[in-house]
Design brief:
2 domains; 424 residues; mainly alpha
Length: 424
């Protein structure tokens, strides 16, 4: 090729080719999915593989050749054609999915000229949504209950409406309480509980009390141990699975604690990472061992629809954390590090998460150092384990307690061992 021709070649020719290739891929991808649902004979749908591919390329060429005006005109033409196609098939299929997908494919082809990765990503999501029609319909109509739908909307409102409006600064004389931090943790608690509920609904206890305990532990590990103890006492054949579920609920405690620390203070999470990892691995290993010994246990009953989470518990958690923030800040001001440790020990008997998040918030606000936050969190983690041990002894029979207590103690002991090795 003549060097002078190369010199006059448009500098963005490669980007244009990439955009056209992306538009072609988007049209083919969505078109293949629609072709499978197009049907046969005179009543078949109007748009299939070729139509979607051409529509996507048309959108790309509209941007490439004419810009905004041509794009708007052709978008109107595609919309009119989609409306005519819907009118022809409205009696047999009143849905608008194919027609909307056709217009969307045209727009994605146009977007590919400006941002090919974004357009292809959206195209993949559109195809997945179209292909998952039956599964989504079955889930919405036959699986999720009205109460669970309301909970999902409540969670969305809490995260997308209330959270952005919450003040992001301290509002108390001790400079300890940040409403944005408290509500973020409440939303995180609701989300974690919802995930645990979904896991139980999808898999079901029939897959094993071990998984049920792990999922329920995100709601309350102590309550899970109590429930597993009752299960073991009433149905001795399920004792092995109940023990596994009880111990694995402690793994949920560790995971939830790591999530809360990550949302509050990355520095504290970094210092606590290895002890928490050791605690989680110990609980996982012991719980998995108990699960292997209960493989032949009979299946539990299915989990009925219910609340995905309890917003009162999440709000109470946020309020408790606020109280712990004030208490730990007051004790830290009056008694120094000793007062913070005492407050963490007392709070840990009820809940390790709130006090851990409170201590991490103090570090994030510059009130204490990262090194000073580790010991109170470990103390709260340990006193919370004492509460679990007491529940295991009182709720279940002696055999259940003798199996659960070593698992809980092993998890806490592993965390302390790794922490001491770090200090050295």
């Amino acid at each position: 090729m003549d060097p002078t021709a190369l010199a006059h070649m448009p500098p963005d020719i490669d980007q244009r080719l990439i955009g056209l290739a992306a538009a072609l891929g988007i049209g083919l991808l969505i078109g293949i999915e629609r072709e499978r649902r197009k049907g046969e004979g005179p009543s078949r749908a109007a748009a299939g593989l070729r139509t979607f591919t051409l529509a996507s390329l048309l959108g790309a060429l509209a941007v490439l050749l004419g810009g905004g005006m041509v794009l708007a005109v052709l978008a109107g033409v595609v919309g009119v054609l989609a409306a005519l196609a819907y009118r022809r098939t409205a009696r047999e299929d009143p849905g608008l999915t194919t027609e909307i997908a056709l217009v969307l494919t045209f727009l994605l082809g146009a977007l590919a000229l400006h941002d090919a990765p974004l357009a292809t990503g959206i195209g993949v999501l559109v195809t997945i949504t179209l292909a998952a029609r039956q599964r989504l319909h079955r889930f919405v109509v036959g699986v999720i209950s009205e109460q669970e739908l309301h909970d999902a909307l409540l969670l969305a409102a809490a995260a997308l409406v209330i959270l952005p409006l919450t003040p992001d600064h301290t509002v108390d004389p001790l400079q300890a309480i940040n409403p944005r931090t408290l509500w973020t943790l409440a939303v995180l608690m609701m989300a974690i509980n919802a995930c645990g509920h979904i896991a139980l609904r999808v898999a079901g206890p029939a897959r094993g009390l071990s998984f049920a305990g792990l999922a329920s532990g995100f709601v309350s590990s102590t309550a899970t141990i109590a429930a597993m103890g009752v299960q073991a006492r009433e149905t001795p054949a399920l004792r092995g699975g109940a023990v596994s579920g009880a111990v694995l609920s402690s793994l949920s405690t560790v995971l939830q604690l790591a999530l809360l620390l990550g949302a509050t203070s990355q520095t504290v999470l970094h210092r606590m990472a290895l002890p928490l990892l050791a605690a989680g691995l110990a609980a996982l290993a012991y719980g998995a061992l108990m699960a292997l010994r209960s493989l032949h246990a009979p299946a539990a009953a299915a989990v009925p629809p219910g609340r995905a989470f309890n917003p009162r518990i999440a709000i109470l958690f946020a309020l408790t954390m606020g109280g712990m923030l004030l208490l730990t800040r007051f004790l830290s001001n009056t008694l120094g590090s000793a007062g913070l440790a005492v407050g963490a020990a007392l709070a840990g008997f009820a809940d390790a998460h709130s006090i851990a998040a409170a201590v991490a918030s103090l570090e994030a606000g510059g009130k204490i150092g990262a090194a000073d936050a580790v010991l109170p969190i470990m103390i709260a983690f340990s006193t919370n384990a004492l509460s679990k041990i007491a529940v295991a002894i009182t709720a279940g029979d002696s055999d259940f307690a003798w199996r659960v207590v070593p698992g809980v103690a092993l998890s806490v002991g592993a965390a302390w061992l790794v922490l001491l090795l770090q200090v050295r």
